[in-house]
Write a structure and sequence with these properties.
Elements lengths: L2 H5 L27 H11 L9 H6 L4 E4 L8 E5 L8 E7 L2 E5 L6 E4 L1 H5 L6 E8 L6
Antiparallel strand pairs: 1-6, 2-3, 2-6, 3-4, 4-5
GO biological process, one term: proteolysis
Protein name: NlpC/P60 domain-containing protein
InterPro entries: NLP_P60_dom (IPR000064), Papain-like_cys_pep_sf (IPR038765)
Length: 139
Amino acid sequence: MTDFLRQLPLRFFEVPYEGSQIPAGDYGLGRGANCQRYAYAVLAYFGVVLPPFRSSDLWSDRVHTKKVEGGFEPLDLMLFGPNDSAYGAHVGLWTGQDGVLHLAKSVGVPAIWSLEQFAERPEYRRLIGAKRVRSLPGK
């Protein structure tokens, strides 16, 4: 298991999926979260605060994040969808060891899936790409 997963309190693995809990400048998880809000709350736990980007805004952002072309690192933001469009894309966090921590409606609570598991599902079959936060603490 990747180091950052061991550091996350248990409450981060018990968050219920709630689609109406979108990023809105507050990354509290008390009422559940959608995928973006969950990913941003995990980042915030490690001292990284991003603007409340929706997935398409995250993908187009060049100020706070940069695109990653392979060589993923833990806490890179991964975007998945049925096609190449970032609009409405599903967002998770790379754990290392071919795993992505994410919160999906189909599971209901946080899960770690391999890239192959995403590819098996029509709504997530395309890895749109990855984004790395430009200034992670300790780097």
